[in-house]
User: Fold these one by one.
Assistant:
Number 1:
Amino acid sequence: MKIAIVGYGKMGHEVEKIANARGITVASIIDPTERNATHREINAQSMENVDVCIDFTMPDAVIGNLKQISKFEKNIVVGTTGWGNNLDEARSIVDKSNIGLIYAPNFSIGVNVFFKIIENAARMINNIEDYDVYGYELHHSKKLDSPSGTAKSIEQILLRNIKRKKHVPFASVRSGFIPGTHVVGFDSSADTIELKHTARNREGFAIGAIMAAQWIQNKKGLYSISDMMNELIGDE
Ligand SMILES: NC(=O)c1ccc[n+]([C@@H]2O[C@H](COP(=O)([O-])OP(=O)(O)OC[C@H]3O[C@@H](n4cnc5c(N)ncnc54)[C@H](OP(=O)(O)O)[C@@H]3O)[C@@H](O)[C@H]2O)c1
């Protein structure tokens, strides 16, 4: 498989590192300003020999990039976050141009497994009224958003599956250099059950994005990471 990296920031560099380690050819690196990118824009030259594009850019850039990439009928992995309001437009571009797209606010396979574990645990706790629920997340002091997108997803999963709860107390801490920790707890008068995911670095996002590129390579249509995860773990 040959990939194009669209956006040569922190994640673009991480994707390049993982692709090289896994013997996946990086056919082009596209970024309007980064000095070491191979191309400035998505065009016939930068799309030559490319099977799948991996976009880690900025929310405002996603739809424009998708329009360009679809002209060359290339499939695409969108790792960029914060463009969810444009999902319908993305779907219509994907359908019209007959390409494949997979997106995820978090491409870490571990985090997506964690989501499934929380979902199952929450279903069990739903019927055991003695248990209350809480969560917290820890990130480095430079992180801009608070709560994290992952924390928001966890809250949604808990509220969907613990029907008796209308609100989950969920704290966010920003300090030091912590790459990212998310904890969910179920607490009764007798004991506490805690589920915890700890990220070591950004590598997990890049590994997941490369796996997604392999998964989407021969597909058409718009998919989210949960479609890939369900296939990976053999769920419905
Ligand atoms: N899904 C996940 O698992 C996951 C994980 C981590 C991060 N993210 C998301 O991925 C995105 C990128 O994160 P990052 O940490 O890599 O950010 P970053 O270091 O700021 O990198 C973004 C890069 O994309 C470039 N860019 C902007 N518009 C572009 C365009 N139209 N075409 C090509 N390149 C363009 C930027 O160039 P300029 O500097 O010139 O603007 C910059 O070099 C963010 O939305 C972040 O939230 C997702």
Number 2:
Amino acid sequence: MAELGPLTCAGCGLLCDDVFVERSENGVRLQPDCHLGTEWFSARVLRPRDAPAAMIDGQPVDVEEALTRVAELLRAARRPLLHGFDWATVEDARAAVALADRLGALVATDRVGGAWPGAPAVPLRGDSSATLGEVRDRSALIVIWREDPETTHPRLLERLGAGVGSHRRRAAQRTLVVVDDRDTATSKLADLRLALSPERDLEALSSLHALQRGMTLRMADAEGELRELLHRINDAPHAAFVYGPGLTAGAGGERRALTLHELVRELCRSRHVVSVALPAAAGTRGAQEVLSWQTGYAPNIDLASGHPELLSVTTPLDTAEGVDVSLCIEAAPQAPRDGVTGIALSSLPVEGVAVSIRTASAGVEATGTAHRLDGVPLTLQAPLPGEAPTAAALLTRLLAEVGA
Ligand code: SF4
């Protein structure tokens, strides 16, 4: 039995930095316990060390040969796309943007397949946000909008002082509202629950806004619930909305996000109201902030014209933009469409791509910087350093090769 820690866990965007990991022949155990963190560490700590360092068309090759092939593919690409970033560090994202700039590539931190959510709400209009500490210390009311953090961010309620068990004293001092028609682990903890279907999110948010301004309500059948929610918000000096892909993913997602931020702005006229976004993965927030610093735009940009342009297409990116080479960085690549050559730089095994190179896992095998979901930067440690290169090191090599 070996204990490692305290470590920062990158199993989700919370990046808990108080985690101890016990390894034994039976697997991995986390202290404090977290099912998602246990899965995250198990996948990396127990990964076979003799896995191939790189593959081309399913055959093991050495890293140099794979890098040469990737450079050839990128040089010949007409419309390259760099995407993923689920487990990427800030250093990985920074190297990716430099390479994309040289290639004139698309860079996407959102999912590239499926219905596209539209022009991004936060970069266009801004938001009122807060750190986890501010919400924990000040919010008397927390509204969770169509998310189940007990499953996706298991220690979120504990960190916000709205959890159960040892956090009951703080939890008793605040109200937890869940807007969701699913029975989830989080909805079971709610003091007030609005079981609205996802198709009604836009209507519900704009109705709350209208009610707050003393205007006519559009959702007459849900008037009682919406009035009750608004009454509780107006009774609290500080309130927080927690939202994520449940609201923003899919067609019209960013319009719904925009409506939430417009509601928060309206509520802020008489009290302090903030929103906290749950990112899809631990690396997403850091990658988006790198894009913002380096190009002025996030979450998805196009560098083909020689200067950064915010991507605001309304159709799925992988079909709308005629992508022919797709480089997935530290994420599980989706199966490439016909005619698209897939490349993966990943610390976990990948299949179905033309070239893959194994990277060191930040937080286990390599150090790096990650941004917590509220933007706070934290260091990922390397308790079990490995010999594999980081994605940042590979991308820097590719930049030199592509530019040569
Ligand atoms: S809540 Fe997230 S960051 Fe914290 S231990 Fe669990 S998986 Fe890791």
